[in-house]
């Protein structure tokens, strides 16, 4: 369910990004992004749902996808430092927390990490 939600929303972000460069067709519901803060708001919503899902295997995979696509989107827009840094701060928090298995702010174990980090 979370995977389908995230995939659908990221596909919608991608479509809106592509439509940014095209001519809008009459009656079309999905419009292109007018500014970078709109795109960041949409990505932020996906990150929020993903973070609340508490599923590390999905979180890591989809957060990496978001980070990768984010780097592709940035050059196409005028600079918007507040929106950009807000989203980067959120991604940083997610990645750093997942790397240590606990939330950096609350220091609580993340779901899926209750027994500690296992691996290499």
TrEMBL record:
Judging by the UniProt lineage, the source's domain of life is Eukaryota
Question: GO CC annotations?
Answer: transcription factor TFIIH holo complex
InterPro entries cross-referenced by the UniProt entry: Tfb6 (IPR031349)
Task: State a single Pfam family of this protein.
Answer: TFB6
**Stored PANTHER family:** ADR380WP, TFIIH COMPLEX SUBUNIT
User: What is the designated name of this protein?
Assistant: Uncharacterized protein
Species assigned in the record: Parascedosporium putredinis
